[in-house]
Known about the structure:
By secondary structure, the chain is of the alpha+beta class. It contains 12 helices and 22 strands. A hairpin with a 5-residue loop joins strand 16 (227-233) and strand 17 (239-245).
Amino acid sequence: MRHHRLLVPGAAAACLLLAIPASAADATPGAPGIGDSYYPSYGNGGYDVSHYGLRLKYQPKTDRLEGTATIVAEARQDLSRFNLDFALDVSEVLVGGKKAAFTATGDHELEITPAAPLTSGRSFTVVVRYSGTPSKVVASGFTSWLRTPDGGIAANEPESAWWWFPSNDHPLDKATFDVSVAVPDGTQAISNGTLQSTSSQLGWTRYNWRSSKPQATYLTTLAVGKFDITTDTTANGLPVINAYSKDLGDNAGAARASVERSAEIVDWESSVFGPYPFDALGGYVPNVPTGYALETQTRPFYSPKGFAKGANTSLIVHELAHQWFGDSVSLKDWRDIWINEGFASYAQWLWSEKEGEGTAQELADYTYASYPADDPFWKVEPGDPGPENQFHDAVYDRGALALQALRNHIGDKDFFAILKGWTAEHRYGNASVEDFVTYAEKESGKPLAALFDTWLFTPSKPAAAQARAAAVSPAEAPVRPKSWQRIQDTHSAHGR
């Protein structure tokens, strides 16, 4: 049945105005950076992405990657052109189904000029066809694509997307993802979220993964190789998928003994931080020579070296805590790294407390006493460490120390209520250090600016009087907690 609507002149004029596209005269280019204080060229301005659909084909023998990325976005200004962050070779770009002009600028910028300007507030779709050999592509002096004996891995921070898909590469622009990857039969492709389906044809197997919750680009991962895969479900029915390269050697047993405890650890962390924010969990350990781990969303990446000294549940606790602090609640600016790393490190202190290997208070006391006043450790401000110190020990240890100082100042009831409330209020969003200070003051009813200034923003060791006020100044030299060294070992797993 057809319906006809009668429009009065005023309403008709308004509809015509809404239909008028942006004019070339009014439209302006989107900024080639999103405005990050540490990485000005990362991300882009003028639009916001809601979804990435990636259809890929990867040949492990040659490291050849072919892909088509479909990006759904909304213009935030009248756009004459816009940028994507990308470093592989592009053969074609379509915007709204029409061919668009494009050029590579700098070492990771793809500048796109659509056939007609894009109107602010309107959604649009970009299709990018591309190919390349990721391990041979150097951008900003390095590659984030890791080769393995049987494949390749995309996992790094603060950037890894450039080497395998075009994006608005900054945590401020999170999106949902569909990642579809074809690999030779006998090889697996691991990504984030839930495995929707697999299919085989003419010697190739295609894996289709979906991330249904907002996800930052650097937290989106791809692992291609030959894996032993374990599957399970949590008590709440969430799918657990873990994967281990078949050639991990002496580290294989310790890796499994650690990662296989992911469901147990998430259940415990849910009791401390609030409901788990995603619909899948797990982890993967590929055969890479690196030493770091990364909180890739729902499926953290672990280097085999993280288990060289035996099983390491503390490392698993850290990366899974990031699912709340860093993944669900993401930083606004890379200077806000403390809201990721300080909280994940404090989760390790809480786990140590639970396991009877040293309380958070004992760890705080030992941390404060372990570094003399002239140690460079105290020169780094966890609240704004600078890009060269983003993964400095101080961001982890001093960052956790700040949370113990807060806990002592406001009491356990308010402190643990704040942890749950913070992750609930900013779920799937972004926040800054300043946002946390404001939230903690509101929920505790106490002024806290001076406390955070002392522990996060002062480039020197807090004086004894300040430490006593925060109850982290032991009267005598504290005994080293049993968990101390294992927690310290995880710091090396975070230097990129």
